[in-house]
Write a structure and sequence with these properties.
The chain is of the alpha/beta class and 373 residues long. It has 15 helices and 11 strands. Strand 4 (98-103), helix 4 and strand 5 form a beta-alpha-beta unit.
Length: 373
């Protein structure tokens, strides 16, 4: 997760850097969902039956707390299909764990929206383009109107709400629309996620952007981040699953604030790039623990093992935790900026080459940009 807006403001204004104190768990509490999205890494359907019990989940939350997990993102499937979701979130809160909700918004109503925003520290709702694009991408006609209503309901409470947008060949033409929508509706956060080759995202590999399309899109996103900062517009921009965005931001920042470029670079090295298995983990609806939601390999299962035993040991996790320069082949081996991105997505590398430690095939940086200047 790359927080462009926060980095720009904190470096320019010499604010204390935002450091993740602890690990983030993205937990797919259910594989049940009322949509059939083209990019879904869980391949969710409405017919799924929940595997993990409430008591098993609570037990694991306590184990996670003991092992430094400070944030849990409630995901799915559609997490609001679980009847015990609020009970689980309240249990997290009682134990000092911050909770985020990632939802399609279709279960938001006037009667439950206040409960939702009061329960979760942040609510992210997925909108993948204008009406026709969103409905096609999400597999349900009429989904856009209901999802937009959900965003408006949540935003009207004054709580921290954001739009989650996945950028693919199917949605790229709606990128500007998403920013226009956030501006029109005064939505305080936009999260742009790049496609990772997993689940339906792997089945639909052909819908990923070309490197030229990706670069143009990231340049637009960075331009908007600076525009919002310079005009005082209170919209936070975050990108995900493409740590190379940080190098493009660094170069743009250096053009605008050359005297602060080295300071920004230090911040980016501290941020650390891809954090799979280091500060990020995933638990799926079957209890499998992975270094990130898209990772092709599991490191354990919470039904069979204590979470601490899983998270504190293992050769794979040790290799992933090499920082700031993992041992990665290809263009990464000689890249002088590797200490910023840490090699990008291991899931994408594996999907294309079968090798966890090959270069991220989506890296769009030029040879010149891979050099420190």
């Amino acid at each position: 997760m790359f927080r462009l807006s926060n980095l720009i403001s904190s470096v320019v204004e010499d604010k204390k850097e935002r450091i993740l104190d602890g690990s983030i768990a993205i937990w797919n509490f259910t594989n049940r969902c009322n949509l059939s999205c083209m990019h879904c890494y869980s391949k969710s359907t409405l017919d799924e039956v929940d595997t993990l019990t409430t008591s098993q989940i609570k037990k694991t939350i306590l184990e996670m707390k003991e092992n430094g997990v400070k944030f849990i993102i409630f995901s799915g499937g559609e997490p609001l299909t679980r009847k015990d979701l609020f009970e689980i979130a309240d249990f997290c809160k009682e134990n000092g764990i911050i909770t985020y909700l990632s939802s399609n918004g279709l279960y938001f109503t006037k009667s439950n929206v206040q409960r939702i925003v009061d329960t979760f520290n942040y609510v992210g709702v997925s909108i993948d383009g204008d009406e026709s694009t969103h409905d096609y991408f999400r597999g349900l006609k009429g989904a856009f109107k209901e999802t937009l209503k959900a965003v408006q309901l949540a935003n009207a409470t004054g709580a921290k709400v954001g739009i989650r947008f996945t950028i693919t060949k199917e949605t790229i033409d709606s990128l500007e629309y998403i920013f226009d929508l956030a501006e029109k509706e005064s939505i305080p956060k936009i999260y742009v996620s790049h496609l990772v080759y997993s689940g339906r995202g792997l089945d639909n590999l052909k819908m990923d952007l070309s490197k030229e399309q990706r670069r143009k899109s990231v340049e637009f996103i960075i331009k908007k981040a600076f525009e919002y900062y310079e005009t005082g517009r209170d919209i936070e921009i975050v990108t995900g699953n493409m740590e190379m965005d940080a190098i493009l931001l660094l170069n743009t920042f250096g053009e605008k604030y050359p005297e602060l470029k080295s300071k920004m670079r230090d911040r980016l090295v501290t941020w650390g790039g891809n954090s799979a298995g280091r500060k990020l983990l995933n638990i799926n609806s079957e209890g499998d623990v992975r270094p990130d939601p898209f990772f092709p390999l599991t490191v354990g299962n919470i039904i069979k093992e204590n979470f601490g035993n899983i998270w504190q040991s293992g050769e794979l996790l040790d290799e992933l935790r090499i920082h700031p320069r993992r041992q990665i082949s290809g263009i990464c081996a000689s890249c002088e900026q590797l200490d910023i991105c840490n090699g990008g997505s291991r899931a994408r590398a594996y999907a294309i080459t079968g090798d966890l430690w090959s270069e991220d095939p989506s890296c769009y940086l030029t040879q010149e940009e891979r050099e420190i200047r």
